[in-house]
Design brief:
Layout lengths: L4 E7 L32 E5 L8 H4 L2 E3 L19 E5 L3 E5 L5 E5 L5 E5 L30 E8 L5 E4 L6 H8 L17 E5 L7 E5 L14 H5 L7 E7 L8 H15 L1 H4 L3 E6 L7 H13 L5 E3 L8 H12 L25 E5 L6 E5 L1 H8 L6 H14 L1 H7 L7 E4 L2 E4 L3
Organism: Clostridium weizhouense
Subcellular location: Cytoplasm
EC number: 3.6.5.-
Length: about 425
């Protein structure tokens, strides 16, 4: 089974909470704070594995969650970091953000790694908040939450040469004769329902990877049949071998087939349509009038394609010439990365703890409501029943600039400031 697209949910590990702890030893009745830091959460890392050729594993497993960091402990014991989760994918995998469908990364190199989500940072223990004036802090920092995202994994095959043409023109036969690939071959349409790859290794030429792309039909660029899924697999190829059934035994007109396939390429991508092609007139063993080939060759060359070969994959006549020409042309065609425009790239928002301030007007006093992820994190780190902790709370509000912002908004003496369920009066 060939799976080339899959949706999965991933989440990095949460950071462990810092500990609130104090030394309790014999003869040390007032030991200082010794709460340790929490461990960092595990990250989500994607790694290219050349031993994998499909996304089949992601058909059955749709959720990947990294390990959380452990909480800190007493005696300044630090929590253990969560283990990173390494997800192996085949070379040629593109990762997209699900909602926008924009590209996050193109994993197209051997052993390439990409950290997609970083684990949450562990919180500091109360030992880190001790100062000469705050010697017994009764609060610690919670661990940062992990990140989560739904992504689309999309496989686009990595091949130097793509075999192109209508169904049943001889692409699979050529691949089977020149490589060790074993594609399914028979005399009926759409025998190939998944791309097949093979390495062409012939004496005297540099080896190259060739892909048999399933037959493309008219309307493929608009999604007829499985057209879009098939077309995307030739985006990475440097050279196309366009095979046409010159015999016409199925009632098809060879030149019309050639034009239709190129029209589908152009509709899908002008850059793909402009890629170098070798045109191969196959099944010449069934051709009784050589003028048919000469007429076909003349029409094709008038369209600007100069390299046209006769071939019979069944008898191997002309096969070596086609392969040698492909190897020769590849020497002059540079290896290029898959071109992804800036508009197609996903740029994640920087992970910040933010807040917003709104005003609820009252008859005597107004209420200034502060909300957001910053508020949630701050309150989780504060013990509102402890004076030292409250002093730390107000210091953070000042350092964050919230108090200055409240004054700019016109807050008055005895107005109320509310953060989630916690309220206090503002005093000038």
């Amino acid at each position: 089974m060939f799976i080339d697209k899959s949706k999965v949910f991933i989440k990095s590990g949460k950071g462990g909470d810092g500990a609130v702890s104090f030394r309790r030893e014999k003869y040390v009745p007032l030991g200082g704070p010794d709460g340790g830091d929490g461990g960092d959460g595990g990250s989500i890392i994607f790694r290219v594995d050349t031993g994998i050729t499909t996304l089949l594993d992601f058909k059955y497993k749709k959720k990947f969650i990294a390990e959380d960091g452990q909480n800190g402990g007493g005696s300044k014991c630090y929590g253990k970091d969560g283990s990173d989760l390494i997800i192996k994918v085949p070379m040629g995998t593109i990762i997209r953000e699900e909602q926008s469908n924009k590209v996050i990364v193109d994993l197209s190199h051997k052993d390439q790694e990409f950290v997609l989500l970083r684990g949450g940072k562990g919180g500091k223990g109360n030992a880190k908040f001790a100062t000469p004036t705050r010697q017994a802090p009764h609060f610690a920092e919670p661990g940062m939450p992990g990140e989560e995202i739904s992504i689309i994994l999309e496989l686009k095959l990595l091949a130097d040469v793509g075999l192109l043409g209508f169904p049943n023109v001889g692409k699979s036969t050529l691949l089977s004769m020149t490589t060790k690939a074993k594609p399914k071959i028979a005399n009926y349409h759409f025998t190939t329902i998944k791309p097949n790859l093979g390495v062409v290794a012939v004496d005297g030429i540099e080896p190259f990877v060739m892909a048999d792309i399933p037959g493309i039909i008219e309307g493929a660029a608009e999604g007829v049949g499985l057209g879009i899924q098939f077309l995307k697999h030739i985006e990475r190829t440097r050279l196309l071998i366009h095979i046409v059934d010159i015999s016409g035994v199925e009632g098809r007109e060879p030149f019309e087939d050639f034009v239709k396939i190129n029209e589908e390429l152009k509709k899908y991508s002008v850059k793909l349509w402009d890629r170098p092609q070798i045109v191969v007139a196959n099944k010449t063993d069934l051709l009784y009038d050589d003028e048919v080939f000469e007429d076909f060759k003349k029409k094709v060359q008038e369209l600007g394609v100069k390299t046209v070969f006769k071939m019979s994959a069944a008898t191997r006549d002309g096969v070596d010439e086609v392969i040698k020409e492909a190897a020769r042309m590849l020497k002059d065609i540079p290896i290029r990365e898959l071109e992804i425009s800036e508009d197609e790239m996903y740029i994640p928002e920087e992970k910040r703890f933010t807040y917003t301030i709104s005003i609820e007007e009252g008859e005597e006093f107004d209420t200034y409501v502060i909300s957001g992820s910053f508020v949630d994190r701050l309150l989780s780190a504060v013990n509102i029943h402890d004076s030292d902790s409250l002093r730390y709370f107000h210091k953070v509000l000042r350092n964050k600039g919230i108090m200055d912002e409240l004054r700019e908004m016109g807050i008055q003496d005895e107005d109320v400031v509310r953060l989630n369920d916690f309220e206090f009066e503002y005093l000038l």
